[in-house]
Design goal:
Elements lengths: L4 H13 L12 E6 L3 E7 L5 E10 L6 H9 L11 E4 L4 E9 L5 H21 L6 H6 L1
Antiparallel strand pairs: 1-2, 2-3, 3-5, 4-5
Length: 142
């Protein structure tokens, strides 16, 4: 069995649920897809295959966000947030990410599809509420 065999099996189960022919892992154990029209998602089977790392690229925060937007984003990271175990963070390029880890054992493609559907809805809401610009990677390809 290869290092990421369980992760690939999970993605093989997930792909048809999302209407994809396949969702292969790259050499680093990651796979990329787009939810909806424009919400990039990266999935990584982490070493030891104990967890699945999931990150959605939400967009770039304005250079000078207002207090209400900043406070709203921070509240989304509270311990009692409906996003848990996912949190909002910023990458070195200044893009906001919605990311988290799920335990891989017991996770089915159906369960992961439901999680991704919820994350897509939350990601779209965060983009709208915070008036985010396109993430750096999407901006360069647009």
């Amino acid at each position: 069995m290869t290092e990421h065999a369980h992760t690939q099996a999970l993605l093989d189960e997930l792909a048809p649920l999302l209407g994809l022919a396949a969702l292969p892992l790259n050499a680093h154990g990651g796979a990329a897809l787009t939810l909806g029209a424009d919400l990039p998602v990266t999935l990584y089977g982490e070493p030891g295959e104990r967890t699945l790392f999931i990150a959605l690229a939400l967009g770039r925060l304005r250079n000078e966000p207002d207090y209400a937007t900043t406070a709203w984003l921070f509240r989304r990271n509270m311990f009692d947030s409906t996003l848990a175990p996912f949190v909002i963070a910023a990458n070195p390029q200044g893009d906001l990410l919605l990311w988290g880890r799920l335990p891989l054992p017991g996770l089915s493609g159906t369960m992961l599809a439901a999680v991704l559907d919820t994350l897509a809805a939350q990601g779209t809401r965060i983009r709208t509420e915070a008036a985010l610009a396109l993430p750096a990677a999407q901006e360069q390809s647009a």
